[in-house]
Design brief:
This protein is elongated. The termini are far apart. Helices cover 72% and strands 0% of the residues. By secondary structure, the protein is an all-alpha fold.
Length: 113
């Protein structure tokens, strides 16, 4: 009887420890995961609210005819009938000067002449 008790008591203690682990640690981990997910969702919501505010202000600006005209002229190069559009091209790039120390100058000179 005593040997049976000695073998049953550790088994019961292990089962109690497993039950405590199952009911205490696992819900805590789930709670922490849910808290992290909630924090991520709040951050995403704040970013979306900021983006919506920016889009609303853009919509308000685009409802003004002056803004539409400015965009049409600058982005799409549109003009009113009777106006002429001119494109000013940038200057051509300057030729690259290779110093005489360039290791292939002797080869280029010998091949050219």
């Amino acid at each position: 009887m005593i040997t049976l008790r000695r073998s049953v008591i550790p088994l019961v203690l292990v089962l109690i420890a497993l039950a405590v682990l199952f009911y205490a640690v696992l819900p805590t981990r789930t709670y922490m995961d849910q808290r992290s997910a909630t924090s991520d969702a709040r951050a995403e919501l704040a970013a979306l609210v900021d983006e919506n505010d920016a889009l609303r202000s853009r919509l308000k600006a685009l409802s003004q005819p002056e803004e539409v005209e400015r965009l049409a002229r600058s982005e799409y190069n549109l003009v009113y009938p009777g106006e002429e559009a001119y494109a000013i091209l940038p200057l051509a790039p300057q030729p690259v000067e290779i110093p005489d120390l360039w290791p292939l100058n002797a080869l280029v000179t010998s091949l050219a002449g």
